[in-house]
């Protein structure tokens, strides 16, 4: 299905240009790795603005495998850290998920809650994503757990799980989701649809709390990666090539959707093995040959000019 068949009009509201490799480190960064032989996953928290011995200073190391219980040696595969540094979750390859609510830096012996026990009640699927939403007014942390077959959310209060919700998106790949702490919104790219979940609705104890609004973005094309910025969603998809006699079987396409305006704001083909990321409120694409491209949104005057040339006065006024 082409972009036009999705029912959304297509425009060129973004400009693509190549740039030099920039640097913009954040103040805190957490990651998972295995520095030791065997399965012994470590969560490390670095303070990037503090450099010692030509490397960022490591403020905390957490050995996570023993936290699952005696005799468990399951490899960790995902970590989520809230910006307040008071909520952290770790996911494992057997669908297990553990969570802690404490000052991650100061409290070295904070208690951990087993949210999903992969050995007994989990699906057994590898965790492909975790994100944390803090609802201060309700004193609830909403923990989203993503696997290839399911999207679950857990409402946690007073270090106990008080609600579990299974959402209507049937899982997603590791790079096909995005979460914003600003509005506590999770966006999930499944095979056919892109779903939008609000943390406050996910925390509600009603039958519809697992349902999210959805749009048929990138439908019938294999989704490789999803990014979100404000009201825009960018998808990197793979689809069969439409160029006759081409030696390439697949075409990789970057598409930027304006969800609020319900239109395709930009679309172009890119070389294979590309990677999208966000930098300074811009969509960036790094290709296999080392080319770094930035996608910048056109100003309102340029957008209006495009709409007027297409005689789309109703959209211009709206």
Automatic annotation (TrEMBL):
Topology term for the membrane: Peripheral membrane protein
Keyword Cell inner membrane among record annotations: no
Keyword set includes Protein biosynthesis: no
Keywords from the named record: Membrane, Metal-binding, Zinc, Zinc-finger
Any single GO CC term annotated in Swiss-Prot or TrEMBL for this entry: late endosome membrane
UniProt xrefs under Pfam families: PEP5_VPS11_N (PF23341)
Subcellular compartments: Late endosome membrane
InterPro entries associated with the record: PEP5_VPS11_N (IPR057307)
Domain called PEP5/VPS11 N-terminal: residue spans: 33-297
Domain of life: Eukaryota
Gene Ontology terms for molecular function: protein-macromolecule adaptor activity; zinc ion binding
BP-aspect Gene Ontology terms: endosome organization; organelle fusion; vacuole organization; vesicle docking involved in exocytosis
Name of the protein in question: RAB3GAP2_N domain-containing protein
């Amino acid at each position: 299905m082409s972009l036009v068949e999705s029912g959304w009009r297509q425009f060129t509201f973004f400009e693509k240009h190549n740039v030099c490799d920039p640097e913009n480190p954040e103040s805190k960064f957490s990651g998972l790795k295995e520095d030791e032989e065997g399965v012994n996953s470590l969560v490390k928290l670095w303070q990037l603005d503090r450099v010692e011995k030509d490397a960022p200073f490591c403020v905390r190391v957490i050995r996570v495998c023993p936290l699952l219980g005696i005799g468990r040696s399951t490899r960790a595969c995902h970590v989520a850290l809230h910006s307040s540094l008071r909520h952290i979750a770790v996911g494992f390859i057997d669908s297990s998920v553990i969570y802690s609510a404490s000052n991650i830096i100061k409290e070295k012996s904070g208690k951990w809650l087993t949210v999903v026990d992969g050995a007994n009640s989990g699906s057994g699927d590898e965790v492909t994503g975790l994100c944390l939403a803090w609802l201060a007014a309700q004193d609830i942390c909403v923990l989203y757990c993503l696997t290839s077959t399911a999207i679950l959310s857990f409402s946690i209060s007073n270090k106990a799980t008080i609600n579990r919700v299974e959402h209507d998106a049937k899982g997603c790949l590791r790079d096909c989701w995005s979460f914003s702490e600003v509005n506590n919104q999770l966006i999930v790219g499944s095979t056919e649809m892109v779903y939008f979940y609000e943390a406050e609705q996910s925390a509600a104890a009603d039958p519809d709390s697992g349902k999210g609004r959805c749009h048929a973005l990138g439908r019938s094309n294999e989704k490789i990666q999803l990014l979100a910025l404000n009201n825009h969603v960018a998808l990197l998809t793979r689809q069969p090539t439409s160029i006759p006699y081409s030696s390439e079987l697949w075409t990789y396409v970057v598409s930027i959707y304006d969800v609020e305006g319900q239109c395709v704001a930009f679309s172009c083909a890119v070389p294979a093995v590309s990677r999208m990321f966000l930098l300074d409120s811009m969509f960036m694409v790094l290709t296999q040959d080392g080319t770094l491209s930035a996608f910048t949104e056109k100003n309102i005057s340029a957008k209006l000019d495009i709409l007027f040339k297409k005689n789309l006065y109703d959209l211009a006024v709206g």
